[in-house]
Structures are given as C-alpha cells and as structure tokens.
Amino acid sequence: MNSSSNDPNFDNSLKNENYLLIFRQMETLGKLGHWEFDFINQTIHWSQGVFTILEMDPSTMPVSLELGYNSVHPDDREKAKQHMEDVITKRIPYNLECRLITAKGNIKFIHSQAEVIRDESGIPLQIVGIFQDVTERTESYYKLKQQELRLSSILQSEPECVKVVSPDGILIEMNPAGLSMIEADTAEDAIGQRVESLIEPSDLKYYQNIHENALKGIKSSARFRMIGMKGTHRWMESTAVPLTNQNGEITSVLSLTRDISDKVINEEKLIRIKRNQEALINSTSDLIWSIDTNYCLVAANQSFLDVLSFLQKVPGKEGDNVLIKTAGEEFYYKWKEYYERGLSGEVFTAYENFISPITNQEEHREVSFKPIRNVDGQITGLVCFSKDISSLMRKSKELLLNEKRFRVLVENGADVIMILNPRGQGKYVSPSITKVMGYTEKEALSLSLFDVVHPDDAPKLKKRLFEVLALPLGASLQSQTFRAKHKDGSWRYVESTLTNMLSDESIGGIVDNFHDVTEKETQMEAIQTQNQKLKSIAWTQSHVVRSPLARIMGIIELIRTGSLTQEEEKKSLRYLLESANELDDVIGDIVRKSQEVIPPEFNSKT
After folding, report:
1. HEC profile for 406-433?
2. Where is the PAC domain (predicted)?
3. For 235-281, how does the pLDDT look when each residue is reduced to its tens digit (9 = 90+)?
C-alpha cells in the first residue's frame, strides 16, 4: 500500500483539489465567478470563472479595483459605483445587474450578489460576492419583450377588429379598431358584454356557426350585419379560430373582423351596373358578339341574335357557328377572313357598305375586332362590335357639301376674314385677301395689322384690340373704318368688324371681317367738299347779293316818289344800272360755283 494513503495532510490536500475542481466545474456550468475585495489591504481577488466571463487571461494582467470598474459598460459604470457606495454606507444588500465589456469587446449581462464582512464597530473589512453571466437569459427576455411590444403595437394599430371571446360568447379583449367599429367609447363599455347582442338578429345564426366551429377547432368565416352601440348598421366579414392553453385545450375564440360595408355596397352597385349594362346592350341597334376559336358564338346582344336568326333562318343562340354559308360565298369568305385576322392577334376596324336584306335600306357599318386573351396571354376568342354609322355618313356628306359652299363663298366674297391673336398677328386669312389688298395669304400672315395700318390710325386699332378682349364669347365691336396699305403702296379705306372668339376651341382668336370701302369714303369726301362749296354759295347769296339788290330797291323807291330833279333822276338811273350790273356779276359767280359743285359724272349724265 502506498504510504501517502495514511498521510492525513495528503488526504486533505487531495480533497481540497477535488473541491476546487468541482467548484470550477460548477462555475463553468453555471457561468459563475466569485470575487473578493479586502478594504484594509485594498486587494481584489477574482476566480477563474470571472476571467472566463470577461474573456481575460489571468496571467497577462494584474487584478485591480480599477480594472473591475473599467470592465463595466460605460453606461452602467456610475450605477455600479453608486450601488457599491450605497451597500457600504446604507448597508443595503449587494444585488446588481449590469453590463460588462469583455477583453474581446463583447458585451455581457451579469447578475452579481455579495456580502459585506464588518468588524464589531461596523467598519467593512471585506466584501465577498459572486456574479453570473445572464446574457442569454437577458437577451431572450429582451427579445420576448420586443416581440410582445411588436405584437402589441401590431394589434393596437391593426385597422381591422381583433377580439377574443370566451366559449360562452363574452367579450374578453378587443383592439382599438374593434372598439371604434362597435362604437364603444372605452374598453370598459364593451369588455364583459355578449357579442351576440351586437349582431343583427336575422344574421345571428352565421355568427354562431363560426363561433361554434372555432370551439370545435375548426377555422371558418362568415358575413353578417352588426349594429353598433350607437345604432350604426355595418356589414362585417369575420374569421374565427380557436385559442388553446399549454395543454392544447380550447379556452377562447380569436376573431379577425373587417368592415365590408363599402364592399357590399360596391358589389350591389356592380350587380345594378351589370343589369343596366345588359339592358343597354340589348336595347341598342349596334351588334355586339363574341366567338371562340372555332367561330362559335359565346355571347351576343339581342340585335346580333336577330341578324343571326335572319341569316340562318332559325333562332340564333349561343354555340351557333357565326360563319353562315347560306348568306352567299362572298359573305362567307369575307367574314371568315375578318375572324381569322382577329384570332391571329390583330386589332382592327373594317367598314361595311351594303343594302340591308332586312330593311332594304343602304347601311354603313363600322365593325371592330379585338382578340380575347386568358391570363397566360393566349387567344381564346374574339369580341366584335358593329356600329351603324349610316346617319353619320349622311351628315358627313352634308358637312362636306357645306364646307365646299363655305369655301367658295370665302374665297370669292368681297369680305376678307382673318383670325388674329390678341397682338394683331394673323393666324388665318381667307384667300380673298389677294383680291382686296394684293397680298398672298402667306405674305398677309407674316405681317401684323400694325405693319399695314396707317400710323395715324394705329392708336385707334390698339384701343380696339383691347376692347374686343373684354367682350363675351361671340360678341362683336361696332364696325369702324381704318386706312390700310395695299401691296401696291396705295392707301385703302377698309371697314372692319372684330368678334371675340378666343375661347372657342375651333377658332381660338379674334375674328376680323373687313372689306374695301375706299370708293365709298372717296365719295363721302367729295360730298363733304361739295357741301362746303354749297355753304359758300349760300353765304354769297345771303351777303353779297343783298347789297346791290338793296341799293336797286332803294333807288327805285326814290324815283317812284317823283321828288327828284331831272339831274338827280339821271344820276339815280346811272346808280341803278351799276347796281344791276354788280348783281348780274354776283349771279354769274353763283352759277359758276354751282356748276363746280355738281360731280362730273352727274354733269355727263345730264
């Protein structure tokens, strides 16, 4: 037997090593470390577990209180120091959770507990403690907390109603959107109430069905009407699922409910629209139909069915082949070509002109073809639309005739028509501009009105352009005369009428209708000149003629009295003759001036 087995010191040493080994294993397994601080000698001791947690090599650095505090995360360092001070001064238990920064830069969460050893007077001699790496537990807690907050945030912000209902139909929990949906002012108004009291009585069976299915472990959905706490009626769509405990037992029902009132209203509106569309489609004389790739009728309005029935001599129906051989070979192959083009993917429009076999009237039709494709883009059929444009064609012909008449009038009329912008620049001018003013249409459009108007008339024209802009659409200014330069350099008088058509989309400008009134103005000037001459003659009559006439009358009256001597009578007769000659000269002058007043044309005619 080995002698060491009888040595008690050896046994104790072996036990101590075993205990130390077990202790280290416990520290490693529990992620623990213990530490001691001697207040008297200001020394600190860390176990291997502390170095392991801090990812430090004990042989590379001396242990110190400063190293310990520096290992604490900067954001937690002041808290750790303050806690130690409170433990010493206020004698509170040492119980601290904080973050440490390891030698490798990793952050770890630790939970530390310690006991302070004091002397008889209460002075601290030593503090002995342990701490445990609780990083995984803490991070798991924070993750769970974040998940809980995230789920809570989602639930609170969820726009649909989320509620939990007990098996007997009592509301346990509901998110804000749900409370708003049922018109509850607070959660207390709704929690604890029976959900069935909010359901339209005639729809109660639908709600009860999904609730009972959930209690059986079956997920299901239903639509029903709800009446809010303030009386508002809504259509709801709800999906119910079971909620279970840890043992898998169903403890309540979770429901996601959305307000589908607008959806239901829109569905009803779509149904009405569809019915209206069917009524409209069937009431039109236009032909609407669709075919499959075998030229068989898929759908059609009544107008097309009437035509199909006439052509095939039997009532038309869905499934009939739309290529009618009895309508003639030309008709058959023409429409077969149309359908083949459309079924090949071409979108096109054809125009048909024929004598209708039904009405015996000439018809013009615009026929459109468009392929029908499925979700994969494959052509599955063709939709066709035949529109009667006979009336439109007749009106089009009438419009063409009217346009020709208008063009003839514009081109050969005495008036010039111009469309101007507000600055007087031409946008359009009628061909009669050449006959009236000598300019070609191109030359006229390159000029502004101010380039041809007489400088003395320019202010009047500018004022007129401002005035016409203030008029309502279609209103005109009273006609006015301007002097405009002919291409040959002469000045012509033109009478212009401006009309505001700026806001008319088809014209978009000021319409100027003008014509040459030079001859008229010249005659007016001549008349005014003659009037002046006539005034001069009248003045002469009233002033010059009266003087000799008054002398003659006076002399005659003097002679008639018989009081004159023979010599005086002779002298009076001589004065009478002189006055008569003077009067004759005046009359001759009046005759000459009168002849000048009469226009030469009048003279020649007379």
Report:
1. HHHHHHHCCCEEEEECCCCEEEEECCCH
2. 94-146, 220-272
3. 999 999 999 988 889 999 999 999 999 999 898 888 888 787 777 67
